[in-house]
Design goal:
Elements (H helix, E strand, L loop, with lengths): L1 H18 L6 H24 L18 H13 L14 H9 L3 E3 L2 E3 L3 H12 L39 H15 L10 H15 L7 H9 L5 H17 L9
Antiparallel strand pairs: 1-2
Helix pairs in contact: 1-2, 2-9, 3-4, 4-5, 4-6, 5-9, 6-7
């Protein structure tokens, strides 16, 4: 994978600099620092650029190691490591199964079902809800609360303002998945979320200009309105943490 090659080259260069026996001139130090900076930028770009296409299919399937029970264990282990451990609404205990079930058929195009990479939608949800705690990093409750059943801040376009509220967990997950699918340029008929209905035309006009399958990296740039794509990098880091905990080496190439 591209990001692994970049990181390997970065490590080799750093080792060479650290263990060199010859004194380094100021000019050589400056050159090495510049090269290291470029490597770090390339590594970040490679991570962000490696996110999969939104629409799932035979060549872009959710890996077999991504299973609802393991995803919920992943969430529980992360939250348990916090002190004090934050509480999670019991209604979300099996939300990964809902992502899997609905993600396999988010919208029906003529004569076929359109699926999304629901695993990455789930990882995005972990960012948006801070691992289902609905707390800010400092522990303060976010403007979107668990009772909203809004797992991606849909409609919360203005900082500090609450987003849309959905009647139950299933509807909230569907709203998120439809919003994700909308970015792929697949038209979502009668979306659950008002926000999806409002922005669908404009977002899809932008995405069609890519003239290629839309990825979660593309979604991240539009979602945050930034080309820096730290959002995509965070999503990939969560995926990597899950992979290192629950997936074997054979799953790396399939992700």
């Amino acid at each position: 994978m591209r990001r692994r090659a970049v990181l390997r080259a970065f490590k080799q260069l750093l080792t060479k600099i650290v263990y060199t026996r010859r004194p380094m001139s100021l000019r050589r130090v400056a050159v090495c620092v510049s090269v290291l900076s470029v490597c770090m930028l390339l590594a970040g770009s490679a991570i962000a650029g490696s996110l999969p296409a939104i629409v799932a299919g035979p060549d872009n399937a959710v890996p077999a190691c991504v299973q609802p029970a393991r995803l919920m264990q992943f969430v529980e282990e992360r939250n348990s490591a916090r002190h004090p451990a934050p509480a999670v609404d019991p209604r979300f205990a099996d939300i990964a199964s809902t992502y899997q079930r609905l993600g396999s058929c988010v919208a029906r195009a003529p004569e076929k079902c359109v699926a999304v990479r629901w695993d990455y939608a789930f990882f995005q949800m972990l960012i948006e809800t801070n691992y289902l705690t609905f707390l800010r990093p400092n522990g303060v409750p976010a403007s979107v609360v668990p009772q909203d059943n809004n797992f991606a801040g849909v409609g919360a376009a203005i900082s500090g303002k609450p987003g849309e509220r959905f009647k139950d967990v299933t509807t909230g997950v569907l709203a998120h998945l439809q919003h994700v699918l909308m970015y792929s340029t697949t038209r979502v008929p009668e979306p659950v979320a008002n926000r999806t209905r409002q922005v669908q035309h404009d977002v899809q006009e932008v995405m069609r200009r890519l003239k290629r399958p839309v990825t979660f990296s593309d979604l991240a740039r539009q979602w945050t309105g930034s080309d820096k794509n730290g959002y995509a990098t965070t999503m990939q880091r969560i995926a990597d943490k899950y992979e290192s905990r629950f997936c074997g080496p054979q799953n790396v190439a399939n992700r």
